[in-house]
Amino acid sequence: MSMDITFLGTGSAYPSPTRGASALVLRREGECWLFDCGEGTQTQFMKSHLKAGRITKIFITHLHGDHFFGLPGLLCTLSLQSSPDPNRRPVDIYGPLGLRHFILPTQDQCPAEEFKEFSYLDRDEVSPQGAQGRILHLDPVEHSYLLVEDEQLVLKAFRLFHRIPSFGFVVEEKPRTGKLDVQKLKDLGVQPGPLYGKLKNGTAVVLENGVTISPSDVLEDPIPGRKICILGDCSGVVGDAAVKLCCEADVLIHEATLDDTQEEKAREHGHSTPKMASDFAKLCKVKKLVLTHFSQRYKPAAQRGEGDTDITELRRQAESVLDGQEVTLAEDFMTIDIPMKKKKQRC
Amino acid sequence: MSMDITFLGTGSAYPSPTRGASALVLRREGECWLFDCGEGTQTQFMKSHLKAGRITKIFITHLHGDHFFGLPGLLCTLSLQSSPDPNRRPVDIYGPLGLRHFILPTQDQCPAEEFKEFSYLDRDEVSPQGAQGRILHLDPVEHSYLLVEDEQLVLKAFRLFHRIPSFGFVVEEKPRTGKLDVQKLKDLGVQPGPLYGKLKNGTAVVLENGVTISPSDVLEDPIPGRKICILGDCSGVVGDAAVKLCCEADVLIHEATLDDTQEEKAREHGHSTPKMASDFAKLCKVKKLVLTHFSQRYKPAAQRGEGDTDITELRRQAESVLDGQEVTLAEDFMTIDIPMKKKKQRC
Predict the structure, then answer these.
(1) Which of A163, B142, B236, B237 is the most buried (most CB within 10 A)?
(2) Residue pLDDT, tens place only, A177-230
(3) CA A114 – CA A75 distance, rounded (Å)
(4) Of B39, B46, B76, Cβ closest to residue A17
(5) Contacts of A22 in chain B (CB under 8 A)
(6) Which residues lie closer than 8 Å to A261 by C-beta, 6 or more apart?
(7) Residue A244: its H or E element
């Protein structure tokens, strides 16, 4: 099952012609999950190979404008596009408290017949019949928020240090059943056929000779799923939960707004430098670190003009912490494939 | 005094890479007045020859997203840019009721120390000491709203027909004093000197021979100022006030979302076609009609690809109503100069 990440905006503070405001898409089985939605994200979609109509979920890391000011426009456009199809699944939106007040019209902003009442949410009440939306609460044991869980994956949020509440997200596929050990099955006298399917699906079988075979007898170790961590703006994580959640992630997407020489200024504004991002990546033993959310002064290497700061210095700073492990600097429209795993790993 | 208009977004419904969402700038003496601010306007500024930092006033025609979703981002960026200069004049924003709820953070959207209370506006009360903002009311005689008046010009708003309240704006320079008739002055025995200045400034003078000369005796007719009309989305104007206000405008900027063959659909959505725009232009005897706010299907002529609708058909439709008078189709980054007038005109 293919999975990839495309950056639609990699600049901080505001969108520019060289770096859009924060937005990235995790694509899986044709579905797009959008993480952050800075101003201009819908136009970035049009310039990319992705289709905004494929968005099924949107996650907002925090309520700074460069991360969510594109949301009202994107939602209106999706609504225009899908208006001939009333059966289209609604888009789920996850974000910090306060986001709803930004995207839902007030009574003086729309005709009376279009106004919808969501004030029950302000009182943290259960939604009335047919109404949607709810407040998610922190799991007091794991110190995370469970946002999505289905048969194939889990998505949790965790808290970051920033000037306002900011969140990181970890998307983790559930392990897949290991392969059947065909040699072992043959040794046990089980011939290829329907029993193989039963065992693969986790059901024990009884052979004609009365011997019971458990799936664990003949299945190889489960194959772990992929893990992707996407962090909002931060100068660090809150508590130990984040390190555990991000442990051995296949991809960690971390902000690096300023370079290492400006660490003091970065921390003062609740931001990170390449070294700070790499320190966290190292702690979590992540396999691939991707830096993004660069100050607009750092033009993409290919678009660098005379007098522009050399962004490749940020990569050098990050890699020096990771003992030479390669670090990627995100650019608008860059796509990163995340291949499936083939064997077990432990954290 | 130079005056020009630059289009930053000429598309309807949503911004696209070929046509930004609605935004145009009226520039006068280096000051920029922004009319509408669709998503992406701040990025369009960066791509243009204009500087967003020169914006002193913003006018929003109506509360459809493609006309104001760029406002929160633009304001944040202006605030970031001007933060080293606390003496910078605040930007005045004029728009329909409901706009304030979109651009001012609620209590759950920002830290307590950043929250500002503007609820007195909801009660249409006078602002407390130091607070700003007020509700403007319709002039019951002229059926317009007086938004700005200074020594040099007046800006009024008037009502349009659309699906929600929508406004047009007329910017009119006050007439300049006419030239001194030097021959007449000489005939009256007034020699060049300080008396000329007094007469030009509107003060009567008494000569040594006891004769009083009034300015009107020696001044030519006042030179009328320029008049620019910028209309929001509409399928027509409300009442007769608009025609009077827009009479003999130097430039009328009118929407033409769809072509004449789709007039029914246009009216159903509260929009205009080239013929509808030209009919109004003809009624008002405007000197130059500029069409904008085109459906995104109409690519700018130079960017038209195979299968794209030919937008020049819209110009032909508009010009056929105006007996061949030239009509301009707006494109992003197009600038239109509005030269000063030299003689009196009457409406």
Answers:
(1) B237
(2) 898 998 888 888 888 888 888 998 889 998 888 889 999 889 999 999 999 999
(3) 15
(4) B46
(5) none
(6) none
(7) helix A241-246
